[in-house]
Amino acid sequence: MPGRGAGMSEDTRDIEALIDLMARLPGLGPRSARRAVLHLIKKRRQQLIPLAETLARVGATARECVTCGNIGTADQCDICRSEKRANGQICVVEDVADLWAMERGQAFRGRYHVLGGTLSALDAVGPEDLRIPQLVARIADEGVGEIILALPATVDGQTTAHYIADQLPGVTVTSLAQGVPMGGELDYLDDGTITAAFKARRAF
Amino acid sequence: MPGRGAGMSEDTRDIEALIDLMARLPGLGPRSARRAVLHLIKKRRQQLIPLAETLARVGATARECVTCGNIGTADQCDICRSEKRANGQICVVEDVADLWAMERGQAFRGRYHVLGGTLSALDAVGPEDLRIPQLVARIADEGVGEIILALPATVDGQTTAHYIADQLPGVTVTSLAQGVPMGGELDYLDDGTITAAFKARRAF
User: Average pLDDT in the B157-166 region?
Assistant: First the structure.
């Protein structure tokens, strides 16, 4: 029976394999994978078939942008190709998910650079393992005047930010402001955020 | 950009569609769907392609067993076809997920009947909407001596259990025991469970 491993029959081998594959997705475990698969089988025409087809299409076409590391279907992603985006500003993010988050904010109209991770002594991630050399090369090639660091406010994220800033003398390096998030209640904020927001207070 | 809806480009249309499809799975929302899709694109060969292929295979072959309502790839599921399973006992469950849960327990070696839901006055689910007529027919056809009700311990589940018992005079109807779950700490159990376990106490 699906989800049991032993006693698998010819009949349920594919369903079992599907559950195992789904359970390996981030945010899903064996139980939610089973629920999702049953749901898909019940909604065969409306969901299972479209999902299988869309997955196959994405698998055949999705690739990393050679310039910035974003995901698209061409050698260069649509942001790098776009003539509507401003040159001269590059926003540096850890991951494609962060790029998408920045885009949802719609505040930034320049270009991006996806590092593919952060420096980490513990995990032995050095500058060569990230797309940092490519970033340094782009600064010269594209005549970039400002680098906006949108890296996570973690130790590794901030180490990476400092490292990148050191590699780019002569370029204006900024980073996202730290402070109280929209709708944030002081009582629920951690001490570090409150301290940072207090230190960066500004005229009202 | 994916997850934004507006501003979708040719480049990311399939990725956007994939995120929307994933977000409609139970247990996943827009954020976890984005994470899952990025994960799949990064693990193209190991996960995305196998998932697309397995989904397509399951979509082409999976169907409901005509006898019990379980999911398999033939007209009759492997449990209904099996000669190793005992006749004469049918375990009645709400859903295929419950059948799988019973099978993981490995306590029951008879046959199953999947109702496809529970009676619900609120949701206007009547006996004809479930596979109850088919169950009644099976009792006579298969010479069943015992029906084991493994229905949820909810109001609708218990209403359904009583209704089924009323439909089957002359058949032994049992139901799963209620009590303290394995590893359960009394302090964390609801009052109803403790009361049920106390009433059903037995010689030690």
Answer: 95
Q: Give the closest of A12, A55, A99 to B48, CB-based.
A: A55
The pLDDT tens digits for A11-40 are 688 999 999 999 999 989 999 999 999 999
- CATH number given to B5-61: 1.10.8
Q: Does A66 touch chain B (CB under 8 A)?
A: no
Q: Which of A4, A8, A12, A108 to mutate to test the interface with B (most CBs of B within 10 A)?
A: A12
With CB atoms and an 8 Å threshold, state whether B58 touches A27.
no
Q: B3-12, B15-24, B135-144: lowest mean pLDDT where? A: B3-12
What ipTM was predicted for this assembly?
0.83
| Fold of the domain built from segment(s) B71-203 | Dna Topoisomerase Vi A Subunit; Chain: A, domain 2 (3.40.1360)
What are the tokens at A8? 């698998």
Mutate one of A25, A35, A45 to test the B interface: name it (highest B CB count within 10 A).
A25
pLDDT one-digit tens code per residue, A125-172: 999 999 999 999 999 889 899 999 999 989 999 999 999 999 998 899
Q: What is the DSSP string of B44-106?
A: IIIIIHHHHHHHHHHHHH-EE-TTT--EESSSS-HHHH-SSSPSSEEEEESSHHHHHHHHHHT
A50 inside 8 A of chain B by CB: yes
Got the DSSP string for A116-129?
Answer: SS--BTTTTB-GGG
Model pTM?
0.81
